[in-house]
């Protein structure tokens, strides 16, 4: 059984640091979207916490929608070949789209998603991510809002999972290797 305190190697980013960073990003989004209502698109399931807290920090009119995508490919790494599991309910024509992610790892999911959404006639498509792993990036998709660059370690919490667990943690933590079968 999962014993959460025993599974934590290190608290990487605390709840307070996450909320302070989201407030900073929210002020920039409010300035950038003062004249046009953004459509926030959360990428299920990891982005649920970010969309939830970021949107409530925003004081401008906005709309929200969700997509679920799945990367084909072996094991835990995404391949860049993406399948839509749940599409948007919203017509993107003329909309100012802001994709919201919890983490950009290889960037392949987002690179595909941005192109897919751009083909639907939006006025603009920008990206906001709480975390980014610079060492792992394989795509040069431009990201307008980045919370934190993080090392290439197994991070979970605040929406991020390992085997669907740990999403509900308030902090972002690094897992002990024993959890995922390491040394
Ligand atoms: C994770 C994460 C990003 C994506 C990043 O989602 O939430 O969406 O992987 O990977 P990439 O930059 O290498 O493409 P995952 O596919 O694990 O689904 P989840 O959000 O439901 O956990
Ligand atoms: Mn995800
Ligand atoms: Mg995941």
TrEMBL record:
CDD domains: PRTases_typeI
Source organism (scientific name): Pseudoclavibacter terrae
Cofactor(s) this protein cannot do without: Mg(2+)
Primary subcellular site in the record, as a coarse category: cytoplasm
A molecular function GO annotation: magnesium ion binding
EC annotation from Swiss-Prot or TrEMBL: 2.4.2.8
Superkingdom to which the source organism belongs: Bacteria
Example of a GO biological process term: purine ribonucleoside salvage
GO cellular component: cytosol
Protein location: Cytoplasm
Annotated pathway: Purine metabolism; GMP biosynthesis via salvage pathway; GMP from guanine: step 1/1; Purine metabolism; IMP biosynthesis via salvage pathway; IMP from hypoxanthine: step 1/1
Record Pfam families: Pribosyltran
Protein name: Hypoxanthine phosphoribosyltransferase
Occurrences of domain Phosphoribosyltransferase (ranges): 17-162
């Amino acid at each position: 059984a999962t014993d959460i305190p025993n599974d934590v190697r290190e608290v990487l980013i605390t709840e307070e640091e996450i909320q302070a960073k989201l407030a900073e990003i929210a002020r920039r989004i409010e300035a950038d979207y003062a004249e046009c209502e953004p459509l926030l698109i959360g990428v299920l399931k990891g982005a649920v916490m970010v969309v939830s807290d970021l949107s409530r920090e925003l004081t401008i009119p906005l709309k929200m929608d969700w997509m679920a995508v799945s990367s084909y490919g072996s094991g835990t790494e995404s391949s860049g070949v993406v399948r839509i599991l749940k599409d948007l309910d919203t017509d993107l024509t003329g909309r100012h789209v802001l994709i919201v992610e919890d983490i950009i790892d290889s960037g392949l999911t987002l690179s595909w998603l941005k192109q897919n959404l751009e083909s639907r006639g939006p006025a603009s498509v920008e990206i906001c991510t709480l975390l980014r792993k610079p060492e792992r990036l394989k795509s040069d998709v431009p990201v307008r809002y980045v919370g934190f660059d993080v090392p290439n370690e197994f991070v979970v919490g605040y929406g991020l999972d390992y085997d669907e667990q740990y999403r509900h943690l308030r902090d972002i933590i690094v897992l002990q290797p024993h959890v995922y079968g390491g040394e």
